[in-house]
Amino acid sequence: MATEPRGNARYPEGVSMSSYEHLGNGPAATGSSSGWRMRAGLIARCLVCDYYMILDPDTYDTCACGAMNKDPGAGRFGSRLGDDRIEIYRHRP
Ligand SMILES: [Zn+2]
User: Fold this and answer.
1) Which residues neighbour 11 within 8 Å (Cβ) at sequence distance 6 or greater?
2) 2 CA to middle of ligand 1, Å?
3) What's the number of domains the chain is made of?
4) Is residue 5 part of a domain?
5) Which domain holds residue 70?
6) CA of 33 relative to ligand 1 center, distance in Å
7) pTM
8) Pairwise CA distance, residues 78 & 86, whole Å
9) Is the pLDDT of residue 1 over 50?
10) What average pLDDT does the structure give for the chain?
């Protein structure tokens, strides 16, 4: 992974993005009116570095450029560049 050129998309292991659909950007795209809704069927993409992150509520993750972070211990998720810099994808039913 570390040898990939900067800017290449990074997908979660074992995930085929063709089975996901783009819902929109920011927390509202996750189906919540009060912040991010975290569940494993959702994937967030950092628009800066093209990193795709599964939004399960249990694991820590950070994107390749460091802007987008998920910290279950602190109950936090987001991008320091703003929520609209995160694209939300949902696994097709
Ligand atoms: Zn990033």
Assistant:
1) 17, 52
2) 14
3) 1
4) no
5) 17-91
6) 24
7) 0.89
8) 8
9) no
10) 91
Domain-located, residue 10 = no
Residue 36 lies in a domain: yes
Rounded alpha-carbon distances, angstroms, from residue 29 to 4, 20, 73: 30, 14, 23
Q: Ligand 1 centre and the CA of 32: distance in Å?
A: 23
Instruction: Say if 61 falls within a structural domain.
Output: yes
pLDDT in tens, 19-42: 999 999 999 999 988 899 999 999
Give the three-state DSSP class for 28: helix
Q: What are phi and psi of 83, to 5 degrees?
A: -60, -30
If you measure from the C-alpha of residue 56 to the centroid of ligand 1, how many angstroms do you get, rounded to a whole number? 18
Token pair listed for 65:
């450029």
Which residue type occupies 90? R
Q: How far is the CA of 85 from the centre of ligand 1 (A)?
A: 9
